[in-house]
């Protein structure tokens, strides 16, 4: 069954700290892997898109990694800000989405 | 263009009524995707449409749900005879082509509450 599993389910960090969110997928064949940020009450906003051959992709303080061999991806957030509080969703293509990691950045 | 527009933002329906959700894609986009998001769950793909055509409806329940994307006007997701289990956030996304990298963008969603 094609699935995307994310961990942790939720995370609380202090403002200014870094964090890493994990995504494991079993989807085959591979479709571009995306990370989204979803604020409460809003639609998902794309952070990074990674093709099969890419290992790392950055967007400001967000850096995504991809290991296509182990079918794992991670999203690293550097120097967190209060506005980073949101759900972060990993997705394979347009059909399979993870349930997200809820991040709370505390002052 | 303000992006993908969905309306209404919030919709309350009594059991048995019909719900009509509208999605206006970004200017120039002819591909629309609908998703449902239940609390504490991930986005679930429902249907993919191009202008006047349903391309993939594999995620849409066979009964009570229908979708269209006419030549003119927004895409419509229709839910007939709503039940409490239909309460969810419904999102649409649009893209320029079938390749997701071309400006694939989500709207802000319609939150349907069935009472």
Summarize the helices and strands and which ones pair or pack:
The complex is a heterodimer of chains A (107) and B (115).
Chain A: E1 4-7, E2 10-14, E3 19-25, E4 33-38, E5 45-50, E6 56-59, E7 62-67, E8 72-77, E9 86-92, E10 96-97, E11 101-106
Parallel strand pairs in A: 2-11
Antiparallel strand pairs in A: 1-3, 3-8, 4-5, 4-9, 6-7, 7-8, 9-10, 9-11
Chain B: E1 5-7, E2 10-13, E3 19-24, E4 31-37, E5 43-50, E6 53-56, E7 65-68, E8 75-79, E9 88-95, E10 105-106, E11 110-114
Characterise this structure:
- The complex is a heterodimer of chains A (107) and B (115).
- Chain A is an all-beta fold and 107 residues long.
- Chain A has strands at 4-7, 10-14, 19-25, 33-38, 45-50, 56-59, 62-67, 72-77, 86-92, 96-97, 101-106.
- In chain A, strands 2, 4, 5, 9, 10 and 11 form a six-stranded mixed β-sheet that branches. In chain A, strands 1-3-8-7-6 form a five-stranded antiparallel β-sheet, with no helix packed on it.
- The model of chain A has no long low-confidence stretch (mean pLDDT 93).
- Chain B has 115 residues and is an all-beta fold.
- In chain B, 0% of the residues lie in helices and 49% in strands.
- Chain B contains no helices and eleven strands.
- Chain B has strands at 5-7, 10-13, 19-24, 31-37, 43-50, 53-56, 65-68, 75-79, 88-95, 105-106, 110-114.
- In chain B, strands 2, 4, 5, 6, 9, 10 and 11 form a seven-stranded mixed β-sheet that branches. A four-stranded antiparallel β-sheet of chain B has the order 1-3-8-7, with no helix packed on it.
- The radius of gyration of chain B is 13 Å and the shape is globular.
- The N and C termini of chain B lie far apart (34 Å).
- The model of chain B has no long low-confidence stretch (mean pLDDT 92).
- Classes of the chains: A mainly beta (107), B mainly beta (115).
- Chains A and B meet through strand 5 and strand 10 of A and strand 5 and strand 10 of B.
């Amino acid at each position: 069954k094609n699935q995307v599993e994310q961990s942790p389910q939720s995370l609380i960090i202090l403002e200014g700290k870094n964090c890493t969110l994990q995504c494991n997928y079993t989807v085959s064949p591979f479709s571009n892997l995306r990370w989204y940020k979803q604020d409460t009450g809003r639609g998902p906003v794309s952070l990074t898109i990674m093709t099969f051959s890419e290992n790392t992709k950055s967007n400001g303080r967000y850096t995504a990694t991809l290991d296509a061999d182990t079918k794992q991806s991670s999203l690293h957030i550097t120097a967190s800000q209060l506005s980073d509080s949101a759900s972060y969703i990993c997705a394979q293509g347009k059909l399979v989405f993870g349930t997200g990691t809820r991040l709370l950045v505390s002052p | 263009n303000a992006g993908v527009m969905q309306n209404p933002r919030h919709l309350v329906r009594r059991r048995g009524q019909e719900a009509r959700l509208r999605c206006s894609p970004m200017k120039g986009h002819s591909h629309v995707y609908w998703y449902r998001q239940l609390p504490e769950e991930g986005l679930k793909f429902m249907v993919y449409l191009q202008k006047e055509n349903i391309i993939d409806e594999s995620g849409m329940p066979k009964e009570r749900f229908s979708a269209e994307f006419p030549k003119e006007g927004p895409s419509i997701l229709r839910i007939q005879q709503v039940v409490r289990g239909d309460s969810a956030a419904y999102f649409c996304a649009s893209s320029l082509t079938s390749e997701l990298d071309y400006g694939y963008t989500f709207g802000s969603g319609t939150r349907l509450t069935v009472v």
